[in-house]
Amino acid sequence: MKTVQLGFSDLFVTPICLGTMTFGEQVSEATAFDILDRSLARGINFVDTAEMYAVPPRRETFNATEIIIGNWLAARPGARQKLVIATKVAGPSRGMPWIRGGSPDLTGADIIAACDASLRRLQTDVIDLYQIHWPVRSVPMFGGLYYQPSETEGTPIHAQLEALGTLVRAGKVRAVGLSNETPYGVHEFVCLAEQHGLPRVATVQNGYSLLNRSVENALDESLHRLNVSLLAYSPLSFGLLTGKYDDSGLTGPDAPAAARLTKFESSRKQRWGRPEALAAAKRYSALARAYGLTPTQMALAFCYTQWRVASTIIGVTSVAQLDEDLAVWSTGLSAEVLQDIDKIRWEMRDPAI
Questions:
Q1: E strands present in the chain
Q2: What is the pTM of this model?
Q3: N or C, which terminus of the chain has less Cβ within 10 Å?
Q4: Of 19, 52, 66, 80, which Cα lies nearest the Cα of 317?
Q5: 53 is catalytic
Q6: Domain residues for 210?
Q7: Which of 53, 130, 284, 304 is catalytic?
Q8: What's the total number of domains in the chain?
Q9: Per the database record, which ranges form the NADP-dependent oxidoreductase domain (predicted)?
Q10: Residue 197 falls inside a structural domain
């Protein structure tokens, strides 16, 4: 598996990234260690986490994932130098009072303090890719559809970049990125960085899957023209695209008890729990099977083979799931499959946007 360069940065990563948001909630520390060991042994050099994790977010598991990864790194001498580690600073609270006391802003001082705390939890001297988890601006994300021009202004983008620049100059961060961003946000971050000699964003981490192809509606052009790499998260749409909910639904008696959309009501209240999302997932499952593929194979192969995607973030709860997801790397999709995928999208659009 060849590595790819992230934007103009000096980071080269595998086109599959291990997502870790289940560590500390659905996944115990011992199982997380097994998954990390297996991922590294299989050649994956890219691990993504966040100060907010585990998910679903709650006070009791805030920071738990970074702590687990830090403990694993401490127990595996030599592993750190083989990895590109990405983490994220949470944006404004969004109803989570355990994040900076519920602050509606993310100041430059907050960014620097959060980075220092992540470094301690991860037990490392440098974060390879440091990302702003969601915008300080009030923009539609996590299932929202419409921008409201009456938004309350927070810390300006320039000030956020200055804080990131402080971290880069101090050697605490190698490259910076964004997450859950819009075309405007990407352009503004890049333009201000170039005007003021501040760190240029290398990546944008946004949701991208068969149920959410909104990246293709303008953001992909921005990323392509500005040479900013897309990190695609939730390629299986919280498990909807594995086919495991097709017959049972999300809450039926036969629903998989350990799966996140069955187990966590808070997850079902998000975009993944929409009836339209499940209906579309069933259509994609049927299409995959008609072509002799599993739903998981088709959904992951779609992301793995997209020119838009630099690296696809896969989240797993077991070594077996990890191996299954990695095995899809060699799977291609014919022109006929892609045409039929587009037909479903034209009819059902992006229900998990």
A1: 4-5, 12-13, 16-19, 46-48, 84-89, 127-132, 173-179, 203-207, 229-233, 309-315
A2: 0.96
A3: N
A4: 19
A5: yes
A6: 4-348
A7: 53
A8: 1
A9: 15-344
A10: yes
In a domain, 117, yes or no: yes
| Full pLDDT tens readout for the chain, 353 residues | 899 999 999 999 999 999 999 999 999 999 999 999 999 999 999 999 999 999 999 999 999 999 999 999 999 999 999 999 999 999 998 889 999 999 999 999 999 999 999 999 999 999 999 999 999 998 888 888 888 887 777 999 999 999 999 999 999 999 999 999 999 999 999 999 999 999 999 999 999 999 999 999 999 999 999 999 999 999 999 999 999 999 889 988 888 888 888 888 877 888 888 999 999 999 999 999 999 999 999 999 999 999 999 999 999 999 999 999 999 999 999 999 999 999 999 999 999 99
Residue 353 lies in a domain: no
Residue with tokens 């595998």: 14
Asked if residue 183 has a cis previous peptide bond (ω within 30° of 0), the answer is no
Pair of tokens at residue 281 = 């997932």
Does residue 271 form part of some domain?
yes
Q: Which two tokens stand for residue 301?
A: 């192969």
